[in-house]
Predict the structure.
Amino acid sequence: MIPGPTPVPERVLTALGRHPIGHRSKEFQALVERTNKQLRWLHQTEEEVLVITGSGTAAMEAGIINTLRKGDKVLCGENGKFGERWVKVAKAYGLEVEVIQSAWGTPLETDTFKERLEKDINKEIRAVIITHSETSTGVINDLEVISQHVKKHGKALTIADCVTSLGACNVPMDAWGIDVIASGSQKGYMMPPGLSFVALSQRAWQAYKKSDLPKFYLDLGQYLKAAKNNSNPFTPSVNLYFAMEKALEMMEKEGLKNIFSRHARHRSAIQAAMKAIGLPLFADEIHGSPAITAVAPEDFDAELLRKIVKENFDILLAGGQDHLKGKIFRIGHLGFVNDRDILTAIAAIETSVHSLGAGKNKLGEGLRAASDHII
Ligand SMILES: *Cc1c(COP(=O)(O)O)cnc(C)c1O
């Protein structure tokens, strides 16, 4: 129950065990044609979704360096560990970064972006870089509204880390006007780590033509050309493509609406359970991520609870990062997770909290509160 790598269905795992095939073969080309179509469906876009063999950071870095120029001014939203990472990447490439911060555990203020963009009458801001679901704190940022403000600016692009929102909640790339969207296989895709995905809007492809930041493996022009040919510029992880086709077939069968409502239901069940156990949520309920819930116990070390849950129930919860270590634990509920997994995790947490003598309510109240959302 961590936010990635997430659980992998057996039919996806067994697909991995096939013998690799030539990445320039007709058979592979046919497979890529099918997966490209599936990926466009998942992203709700007409654009090509480009597949990079690398982790989610590779896709996000590619999105940044393919659309910007040296010294460009960018606004970076930072309300957690991943927001912090995109600031570092932007700085590493010599971009002029202005950070718009919110306290960890709170969402980015959409009005701050609006005001800053309206003030930019000379149109110097070239991109707004934000993390949709901030995995480190369990907060979902309002990408839809921020992207609208960026559109009104007219010049800047929206570059979005959707690594733990894509496949968990509605992220319609075209309808929201997202210019760059990045994600990774080990999160909502129900796949092992190793592939990452990035799609660019037509506006972003215009910016690509002028972009002058150094790149080779991550030069997305090569990936676009190859994608149009149902191919890949380099040797991709062929076996992960086998797995991807199966995972996306499962997602298509479930349907986007059902996938999103399952994640929303699990978020509500966990939020209700934690409150009933007497454990404060780290983020306000209405800003809770559909992929992960952070919990901030007051009476014991969060690391101790993680240890008890792991040792007694073999369930791995995520810890807090940096200054949040020991202060919060995080329950991942992303990807291949069903109602039983959620009820089991809640029962394990509730039992463990009581074993520490820290239960504020009667044992079972957490599970009862969760089941109201499940059935
Ligand atoms: C997991 C994750 C990433 C990507 O991390 P990698 O380790 O590079 O795959 C990026 N952003 C968010 C919000 C994530 O949760």
Observations:
- The longest strand covers residues 125-131.
- The chain has two domains: 10-254, 256-374.
- The mean pLDDT is 98.
- The CA atoms of residues 347 and 367 lie 6 Å apart.
